[in-house]
Amino acid sequence: MNIFKKQNKELAVIAGCGEFGSKIAVLLQKKNMNVHIIDIDENSFSKLSPEFDGFTITGDAADIDLLEFAGAGKASIIIAATNDDNTNIMIGQMSKHLYKADEVVVRIYDSAKKFLCADMDITSICPCVLSENEFKRIISDKESIAV
């Protein structure tokens, strides 16, 4: 089976098809990328919008053979967005070191683990830190209006 049906497009591989992974998949597809998304639970793919025409793969994204099958070696971006920080970090490390992906992004819930990606050229997104920064912005905006 040839899962690289759109050879002329850049490939994105996403691990995790939850709320975040499914939204990113559609966003990258709209940016004219070929998207392969992996999730251990086949039911998770129901979160993808009807316009999604990428490739879905059921299985454990931390499995090297499955990442290989998904095209990690050809991907220009690999995103680890499972619901487990350790799994995301491990996928990020494999993507950077084994597959030499240009861009690797991992979602990390526990901000204390963010340092694990700092020296590996892996971008980490921490919802807690993003929320904290947004809250600071909101409070700052309200203070400047009150003055």
Order of strands across the widest beta sheet?
3-2-1-4-5-6
CATH T-level topology: Rossmann fold
Instruction: Count helical runs.
Output: 5
Question: What structural class do you assign from the helix and strand content?
Answer: alpha/beta
Spatial shape: globular
Q: Superfamily at the CATH H level?
A: NAD(P)-binding Rossmann-like Domain
Mean pLDDT value: 88
CATH class: Alpha Beta
**Beta-strand content estimate:** 15-25%
CATH architectural group: 3-Layer(aba) Sandwich
Number of strands: 6
Order of helices and strands: EHEEHEHEHEH
The parts where pLDDT drops under 50 for at least 5 residues are 1-5
Using only C-alpha atoms, the radius of gyration works out to 17 Å
Largest sheet: 6 strands, parallel
Number of domains in the coordinates? 1
Distance between the termini: 64 Å
Mind explaining what this structure looks like?
By secondary structure, the protein is an alpha/beta fold. It has one domain: NAD(P)-binding Rossmann-like Domain (Rossmann fold, 3-Layer(aba) Sandwich), CATH 3.40.50.720. The chain is built from five helices and six strands, in the order E-H-E-E-H-E-H-E-H-E-H. The longest helix has 20 residues. The N terminus is likely disordered.
Topology:
Blueprint: E1 11-15, H1 19-30, E2 34-39, E3 55-58, H2 64-70, E4 77-80, H3 85-97, E5 103-107, H4 115-118, E6 123-125, H5 127-146
Parallel strand pairs: 1-2, 1-4, 2-3, 4-5, 5-6
GO cellular component, one term: plasma membrane
GO molecular function, one term: potassium ion transmembrane transporter activity
Domain RCK N-terminal: 9-129
